[in-house]
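TICKET #2291
ISSUE: user wants both folds in one file
ATTACHMENT 1:
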Amino acid sequence: FISSLFLIKVIPSQFFPTQDQARLSIDVKLPIGTRLETSRAFGLQLTERLKKDYPEMEMCNFSVGQPDEDNAWGMLSDNGNHIISFNLRFVKKTERKRSITEIADQMRSDLNKYPEINTYMITVGYGGTAGQSSVDIEIYGYDFNVTDKFAADLSKELRQVKGCTEVNISRNEYTPEIEIDFDRQKLAENGLNITTAATFVRNRFTGSLASFYREEGEEYNIRVRYAPEFRQSVEAIENILIYNNQGIGIRVKDLATVEERLTPPSIERKDRERMIKVSAIVGKGAVLSQVVEETQKKLDKMDVPTGISYKIGGEWEEQQESFGDIFSLMLLIVVLVYIVMASQFESFTYPFVIMFSIPFAMTGVFLGLAVTSTPLDLMGLIGAMMLIGIVVKNGIVLIDYTILCRERGMSVKEAVVAAGRSRLRPILMTTLTTVLGMIPLAVGRGEGAEMWNSLGMTVAWGLSVSTLVTLVLIPIIYSLFADYGQRRKEKKLAKKKQLVA
């Protein structure tokens, strides 16, 4: 058991496995300021290329541009004239040779060949726990320039890490926009205020709801706004007319200064500190713990500027917290199992003997994961939790019959041999049914099988090794404790006789 603990060093770990749901989404960002027509043409070009290079693809569509105000769902996502969002669907996992992660990695290699692409992000599945694992380095600091430079340097280092296929920085580029700075004194002189003036300008661009058009029971909004040619330049905005209460029209240029500026990116905060996040996607053949280890080595070699701090968060942080919770639960389960057995056997010794089967279940888990190169994840730990209740069953069956044989007048050795002979068959039957039932989970390759592979592997290997050890170890330990108890009892009787004499 002690030697099997050294296998922990060679067993990789991850939070959740990547599931093959035959879905991919791609967010492509062209340089800021790219016209809508150019982005749409590039999207069509890229669609044709994807259809040609990936025959496994069943469906490909994309959206580009800024959504209308009525499109609440579109407003929730990152969008703009330079952003193209693709949604791809492939044939089922069992009908193609390449996995979804292999396809995603190949697409990343293809997209790197396009110089017009500024950044891109490929997401496997529907997101959440189904997507590829990522290593998120959270960088904390107040100065934008310093944190931006450190994040850029770190992203270059992470691209050299083996198993890291894509690196993204959470802070967006500075965005150009037109700002109108109203002069409050001029507004007051013309009988206007900020709210009225801003509403006039807003309605000229986004439109104001003038009426409704009804046809065959359907109702459509009628919005009135300037034609596109009057919304394309700073001069057009300066010539917008704003009417006061007297009906007099005043142009924007007489009330405000119109300038085109670069706005800073949105400020992401965590624990009330400014943060920028660098995310590295774990590719095919790599595991989260391995990429985290290599990332930490890169971070240790880098010079961290003054006023900057960092930590590895995201999925790795969640994994550590979840694993810690499960280990605490395991300890609690062991205590509860012991309490239940102690109350039923009316003894503290026999449950202690039976509990020796649990460490060797963990030996089986470590051995199985190491031999099959299966990463330890949350589902695998849940399987290990199940094992604590399952493996003691064989010991209970064996010890209970041994106690019965001793009550019938057999010696310790005779009781142990008789119990082993009599309970071998039911122990093997219950073990085989459980192990064989777990084999499909352990070796399954169908849709969604990735989620259950580690659970089946831990239960099958842990129960098998524990059963083999239990059949030999538990009788031996029971014999030692029983012999010791019998000798103590004989000594007490001898002392009692001496006192009586």
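ATTACHMENT 2:
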Amino acid sequence: LLVDLLSKTSGLEAKYIIRTILGTLRLGVGEMIFLYGLSKAFGGDKKGKETLEYAFNVLSDLGEVAYAVSKMGIKKIAEIKPKVGVPIRMMAANRVEELKDVKKHIVGEVSVEDKYDGERIQAHISIKCQVPSVKCQEIILFSRRQENITHQYPDIIEGLKKSFRGKEAIIEGEVVAYDEEKNRMLPFQVLMSRRRKHGIEEYVKKIPTRYFLFDLLYLDGKNFLKKSLKERRAALEKVFRRLKPIEFGRYAVTDDLSEIESYFSEALKRGAEGVMIKDYSGIYKAGTRGWLWIKFKKEYRKELADTFDLVVVGALYGTGRRAKTYGSLLAAAYDPKENKYYSFTKVGTGLTDATLAKLPKMFEKYKLSEKHKLVETGMKVDVWFEPKIVMEVSGAEITVSPVHVVAKDKIKKGGLALRFPKFLRWRPDKSAENATTVEEIYELYPHTKRG
């Protein structure tokens, strides 16, 4: 059918037919622009954009949203429920520089939870036959990037089948690699070795996991997105049993700042990378990054600092022993409001010889002849990339730069930049849109220096 179609088209038409099929149109048009367009088309103005954004975050498909609003109208689309098997865009957290700043954003009780160094997974569970049994359950696992990664975690699938006591549900949790003998969590890099197409059963035995459940979004026909965290957790703990490798995420409920600080210290001792602090009465805002959730990874040893998930948008050729590869990478933060990437730092430190050797092949399919239209920077590089690959970077401090452009509209003397950056690891579990935001970085920059 495809060959027949292409034989009837011009070269230019064939080009865009293939790009459409592969999902690589590279138009540089953000999702929000489409939602504004739908709001204007079916509502007469842009006021319906927020409602359409809710529908998009639940359905994760602009085509589905367009079809739904054309049939139902904007008012009815606000009643859309999650569908088992259709990934919901995950809620994200903001960050604070000091724990005392939590009170500026959340009033009342919070849930303080361990922040695990693993892979966030959304599980969709459905019983397909009338007589409930393990055999008739269907379970799909989605990554943060909404990829179907069910085949990678057969141990988690079996655990969920035995643990779940309802008919259908959508839940979220964090999968971590786990050392059963020493009863401790293992680093993220160990878990990523489970990401493979072959030899999965061997690695299930080699690298056991634990799935720490922390949220419930949908249960037996009921939409839990607009219910409080307190209600969501109560329902979660009612319909799931703690049964290896299924666990509930550790947490404490309090409104006392000193208790939050104590919990944070204990979480670090347990091997967590920090804490998540969540509004206990807050709803689940799919696809958004707000102050209902706050993450805190404070410097707890002198050599460790808070980290940033940045998008690689360009590179400089190396010299000396790096002559056959890239010597440093230009990294950017994301602004979801503008749908643009603003350069934040140039990273060369921390890249091992093995990592450097892989860079040309790793970035080959993302190479561009000129700067991507969504990228903003004052820096010149040798090679430009499509903003796709995310890496985690540490640094000494945030400073003002004449070439980097994060928050340049808010800082008088230039944009914000990261000093002494160091590459830590790749983040294949995160898409470019999940990168650290411009607003997050601006909030971390001291108020006294903003000028």
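RESOLUTION: both attachments delivered.
EXTRA DETAIL ON ATTACHMENT 2: Residues 197 and 257 are 46 Å apart (CA to CA).
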